[in-house]
Design a protein that fits this description.
With 481 residues, the chain is α+β, with helices and mostly antiparallel strands. It is built from 17 helices and 9 strands. Strand 5 (168-177) and strand 6 (186-190) form a beta hairpin. The relative contact order is 0.12.
Length: 481
Amino acid sequence: MSSASSAWMDRAPVDLRLLPGALVTWVGCWWVLGQQPLAGAVLSGLLLLMSLLCGVRLSRSRPGRHRRERRDRVTATVLLTGVVAGSVLGVATVRATERSAVITGHPAEVTAIVQPTAEPQRMASERSERYRVPARLFGVLHDAERARDLPVLLLTDAGWRDVPVGTTWWVRARVVPTGAGDSAAALLVVTSGAHQHGPAAWHHRAVNRLRSGLVSVSAGLAPQARGLVPGIALGDTRAMPPVLGEDLRTVSLTHITAVSGMHVAIVLGSVLLCLWWAPVWVRVGVGGVVLLGFVALVYPSGSVLRAGTMGAVLLLGLATGRPRASIPALLATVIVLLGLDPWLSRDFGFTLSVVATSGLLALAAPIARRLGGVCPPQVAMAAAVPAAAQLVCAPVILFLAPGLPTHGVLANVLATPAVPPATLLGVLATLCQPFWPAGAQSLAQAAAWFTAWIATVATTTAGLPLATLPWPEGPAAVRCW
């Protein structure tokens, strides 16, 4: 058996001492963002006080019987949880207060510098053609002293349909504060035409060219492929037929067009499979380059950076030769990311990224061992990666989707085998288009064969009786579950 296979099938015990801290931090951030600053300060203080008391108890503890040692280990875990969660929640409270002060301190209408971070997405509107554009707010005219670089959401007209990502613009916009737990600090309703402030950087121009290349070679394909080929490979769903998009939502398949840990796992897993013969340092080095390139290709937005971070954790497991030892690294990564951006606690993409990576680290090895009895180890590894990711993501998707998709599990089981080849062929077509347009066209056409199956599964299962059952949202959904 190869060293790669041995690494993935490591049976070492898992260190879960950071698990309580990660869970308390996640739940605490989710709760704090919806409360007044005093509530967050009180909760953070209580957690730190609990840590102090545990520290005092440990300092007075004496070595002794096994029961006492076990009690001390529990106390140490509580101490670690209190320190980690209390510190992160304190930071979250301060950051939420600062963000609120920045946004509420503005007049109702401002002239601002913004930079789109993703392609404009058309909104469903019968009155006019409107677009929503994720962006960064870099500055406000006549207000240079106030802190900046905040995530915002622009509501614009048709003039923004083809605005390149990475360019900066002066806009006149009306500021609308968002909810406390919203990842966007504010909604900027653009009230007049935009004036370009600066061009995109070279790396933005390169990525924009690659992405537009895949869209262009997909333009002559079947309607489903025009939306699904760029959607699965790059997360670009602008050409998705509305009816197909609704079918995907009905049967809980929209996650295949949202770049997440599953897509990173597919790309990284395929690269590592091709390099199964190489030394570990070669696999890790090439994997790191591919990971950085893929993150840049699909735009380093918040969700993509999270997926990339989770992919880096997988590489860490490979580099150390103990993938299961990377589970503590994953838990530490969750805590650090929540400390940097507590709004991730309410983000659906973050949840899927963490769950997908957890599934890969915990389940890929057992699945590979099971499959290893009927197929070569390399094939078992290639099949185990997407299978583990899908297995753990499906319950989260079913739980968080509006309504209960009765046929969601069936649709995911049927569509999942087509996702890895469609993703890889789409990415290869993207990379080939600037140098070999004919080859890119052939690769996109091959990807369209697999997306045709996904579209057929979505349309067929969405058309079955009782495709969606009523399901309450919010706290009521949790109680019903």
